[in-house]
Each structure stands twice: as C-alpha cells, then as structure tokens.
Amino acid sequence: MLYRTTPTFQSGPRLKRRGKEKAPHKGGALGISYHTYINMSSNAQKTGREEEETHKKVEEERPDTFLDHTLRPASWDEYIGQENIKNNIHILISAARERAAPPEHILFYGPPGLGKTTLAHIIAREQGAQLRTTSGPAIERVGDLAALLSNLGGGDILFIDEIHRLGRAIEEVLYPAMESGVLNIIIGKGPSARTLELPLPPFTLIAATTRIADLSSPLRSRFSGGVFRLEFYSEDDIAKIVERSAKILGVKVDKSGVREIAKRSRATPRTANYLLKRARDYAQLKRTPLTGESVKVALGMLEVDELGLTPLDRKLLEVLIERFNGGPTGVNALAAALAEEPATISEVHEPFLLQLGLIERTPRGRVATRLAYEHLGKEPPSDVTQKLL
Ligand code: ADE
C-alpha cells in the first residue's frame, strides 16, 4: 500500500477524505503529510483505471497541481542540471532533425522527482511534436496500446511513464512497433488466426521508470536512442531551482533560506519545490520573512531534518541498526519491520540513503554505515566497516 496517509501534523478527517481513492498521482502536495508526499511519488500498487480516475479527480481538486506545472521548466535553457543527459539528448535530436527523421526511442530511469517527465515535455516542445502521455498501468489490454499507436500522427512522441508496469503481452505488441514501425494485430483464434500488419507513422517512444531492473532485456534493448539514468542534483543546482521557483511563485526568500531548503531537499527538484511551498505557507501565516531561520522552523515542523531525512528514513536506519544489528538484511525484512511496501523502501527511501552514504548494499543485504550511527547519535560498533566488505 503505497498511498498510506500517515498523519504527521494533519488533522484526521481531512486525511480520511484524502485517503486511498483520492491520493494524488504525483507532485502537488497540498493538504497531505510529508510522509504521504514522499510515498506517493511511487505508485506501483494502483491499477491503471484507479490511477486515471485518481489523476483526473486530483487535477480538478488541487490548485497546487497547476502550480507544479508552472514550475516545470519548458525549455533546455530553463532546465537546470543533468548536463550529461541534456548534451546527449541535444545531439540525438539535432542530428535526427537534420535527417528529417524522428529521434530514436529513449528511456529515462532513476528515482522519482528528478525530472524524467519534464525531459519528455521539453523534447516534444523542442521538436515541435505532439506529445501523447500515458503510463504502464493505464495500458491494461493489448487493445489499449493498439488504440494509442494507431492514433499517432507522423513525428508524434508517445510518453509512457512507469513502463516497468506494462504487461508482457502488451510488450510483445510494442516491440515491432518500436523496431519496424508496424502494429501486429492477431485476428481470430486457433489454426485460422491471422496476423494483420498495420504500418504506423514514424514516432518516438519516450519511456520512464523508477525500476530499470524490472524491465525485460528485450524491451530495454529497443530504446535505440539511449537509456539515460537521471542523477541526484547538486546542492548548488537545487538552490538555483529554488530561486527560479520562488520567482515564479512570487515568493521572497533570502540566500540562507534558499540554502536551507536546498540542503533538505533530498537532492530532488520535486521535493525542493514542495518544501519551498510549505515554508512559504508558514512564513505567510506567521507574517515573517522567508530566511534561513524561518525555513528551519517550518521544515522542522514537517520533521524533515538537516540532511533531508523524513521520519520514515530515520526509522529505517533505526530498525536496521537496532533490530537487525546494523545488517546485512534484505529489503523485504526491512519493509516488514517498518510495515511498508518493499517497493516504497527500495524506490523512494533507499536511493537517497545510499546517495548520502548512510546505508550500503552488499551481496547479503543492506548495511548501516558509520555515518548512519553518527546521524542517529549512536555509537558505531567496532565491526561496522567489516560488514561493508
Ligand atoms: N523544476 C523542477 N526541475 C527543474 C529543473 N531541472 N530545472 C529547473 N527547474 C526545475
């Protein structure tokens, strides 16, 4: 259950209404706890229809969702960070344009909130192409994909988010579409079944996933334009993003306030924008300017610490250290001890804890590092480094 609504400082009835059926697709975080906000970035447990419904409902309900769109950079010039990807994509699409051909298919992967969808939007805009957006869980039947593909126009870009959730039978239809630009439709059953081969207009598939390991290798290998891993952002880049967002939102925040948000943002633009908006709310109600001091108080109330760790991150470290003696332990055991989904742990929490060097992955499981003990104010055991070997 990834859409848990564990309250941190929200009132009960509101959270109930915001419960399972109405949880947001991603991004905007108005009126929900920070814990929920972090979790909802990964929505591996919902069915396609539920998710579509949810998305529609949430778009109607939440003004903040629109703000998230406003904050999204619309061009390469506005897009901060991921320089390597930007350079490679720029070459890929410029060369394709010179040949008057659509760019080859592209796969983006990495933790939630780093800008995979944004990149798809920018590529489409730079190409002057129509972007059709869908997601793995929304494509429930082969017919859904066939309808999507057969409605594409020449040069269109099809964006499939969470592509790791496509069913195998649907993948089989996607392969020839990606490779040879044809849609194979099987008509009839048994010995009299025939395959109808429909030509498709030239198109580009851009896909995104938080779980590259869950993609079959035949699917991965068909992204002939490249498979790109999005990296966590540097603190300086996040500070630039916060400054840009503050300007768009019309919020005044001094340098120390920007730094304080950047430091606690989990190196993730979506989180940085979320924290900026919550700090703005606090400063607005307290009639106080947004400075390092007021940001610290506002984010302290959200229980986001100076490294950007949430209560669940800290609990994970504590459980690993106390209950599993510092590890090594498997993700399933950790998730069970935390009453969380393994996917939430491995897609949302672990990548950042690994990035900070608070945990390490060994062949025998996850291990707490010396830094983790120190961050929780605990004495590291003498064998702490041996476990990492
Ligand atoms: N907002 C969210 N991600 C961004 C990025 N990479 N650059 C600029 N603004 C952003």
What does this structure look like?
Helix 12 packs across helix 13. This protein folds into three domains: 34-53 and 66-229, Rossmann fold (3-Layer(aba) Sandwich), CATH 3.40.50; 235-301, Helicase, Ruva Protein, domain 3, CATH 1.10.8.60; 311-387, Orthogonal Bundle (Arc Repressor Mutant, subunit A). It has helices at residues 12-17, 34-40, 48-61, 63-71, 83-98, 116-127, 142-150, 168-180, 217-221, 235-249, 255-263, 269-286, 292-301, 311-322, 331-338, 342-355, 370-375; strands spanning 106-109, 131-135, 157-161, 182-187, 194-199, 204-209, 226-229, 359-362, 365-368. It starts with 11 loop residues before the first helix and ends in a 14-residue tail after the last helix. By secondary structure, the chain is of the alpha/beta class. Strands 2-3-6-1-7 form a five-stranded parallel sheet, with helices on one face. Strands 4-5 form a two-stranded antiparallel ribbon. The protein has a two-stranded antiparallel ribbon with strand order 8-9. The protein is 47% helix and 11% strand.
Task: Describe the secondary-structure layout.
Layout: H1 12-17, H2 34-40, H3 48-61, H4 63-71, H5 83-98, E1 106-109, H6 116-127, E2 131-135, H7 142-150, E3 157-161, H8 168-180, E4 182-187, E5 194-199, E6 204-209, H9 217-221, E7 226-229, H10 235-249, H11 255-263, H12 269-286, H13 292-301, H14 311-322, H15 331-338, H16 342-355, E8 359-362, E9 365-368, H17 370-375
Parallel strand pairs: 1-6, 1-7, 2-3, 3-6
Antiparallel strand pairs: 4-5, 8-9
This protein binds adenine (ADE).
